[in-house]
Specification:
about 270 residues, alpha+beta, BirA Bifunctional Protein, domain 2, SH3 type barrels, 2 domains, eight-stranded mixed beta sheet, globular
């Protein structure tokens, strides 16, 4: 891809073999995957590609990131060989953009389940957990290219293997290897996540919103019904999270009625 340039390296054999086996299920991502050993941020690179007109379905996968990031400007620790760090270019209809992160959360949880047998759960809007520890995160960033075509770069990071994380991360993070007690097949994880993302994205393009929100609710059942806090207009809101609406907003019961949370940080309480 133009813009990744000399950083592209051959896709490792184990990953290439998995991609070849799963090619028929990859939808728009088939034959559009670039691998780099180390990069500052897959999302930054994919956004640059989108700005220059690269088509929907282009995917950048890194073995390591030096400046990976998550939601709200947080860093995403991305050590070499420990995880999958992936960004895909999408060009959804404007009315579908609000559900991209909800659909992506469902897709990544489904992909991890298909590849490993684990049953991840979701926290709004798109954090992927096993138990009370985070297994994967998703970051969607959008813009409008010089051609006036809008785009969304959908980035996700999955912790594959046990690794020494910084102390502030180690208490909150887990990996597929830690949960299974054995190393996962990283190629299979990538294929299954991209396959599920292709399927959920196509459903979103068709307007099949109900299936996506229902699947999200099923995987978020342990989170819904819990007390939450969030910041809005310079104050802190409090309530009980109970659902999402058809635009992906979190619905919270408060003393004053129902609040609709559409962005920002939600702090979950026991």
């Amino acid at each position: 891809m133009n813009g990744v340039g000399s950083r592209i390296t051959p896709i490792p054999d184990d990953v290439a073999e998995a991609l070849a086996r799963g090619a028929a299920r990859l939808g728009p991502f088939h034959n559009r995957i670039s691998w780099v050993e180390e990069i500052h941020s897959t999302n930054d690179v994919a956004m640059g590609l989108a700005e220059r007109g690269e088509p929907e379905g282009c995917v950048v996968v890194a073995n390591a990131q030096t400046a990976g990031r998550g939601r709200l400007g947080r860093s995403w620790v991305s050590p070499a060989g420990a995880g999958l760090y992936v960004s895909a270019i999408l060009r959804p209809r404007p009315e579908a953009i609000s559900l991209i992160t909800i659909a992506a959360g469902v897709a990544i949880a489904e992909g991890i389940h298909a590849a490993s047998g684990l049953t991840p759960r979701l926290k709004w809007p798109n954090d992927v957990y096993v138990g009370e520890r985070k297994l994967a995160g998703i970051l969607a960033e959008g813009g409008t290219a010089q051609s006036s075509m809008s785009y969304v770069v959908l980035g996700f990071g999955i912790n594959l293997f046990a690794t020494p994380y910084p102390a502030d991360v180690a208490t909150r993070a887990t990996s597929i290897e830690l949960e299974l007690g054995r190393p996962p097949d990283r190629g299979l994880v990538l294929v299954e996540c991209l396959t599920s993302l292709a399927s959920r994205y196509e459903a979103l393009r068709r307007g099949d919103v109900g299936d996506i929100t229902a699947a999200w609710r099923a995987r978020a059942a342990e989170s819904l019904g819990r007390a939450v806090e969030w910041d809005v207009d310079g104050r802190t809101g409090h309530g009980i999270a109970h659902d999402i609406d058809e635009a992906g907003a979190l619905l919270v019961r408060t003393e004053d009625g129902q609040a609709r949370v559409i962005s920002g940080e939600v702090r979950w309480r026991s």
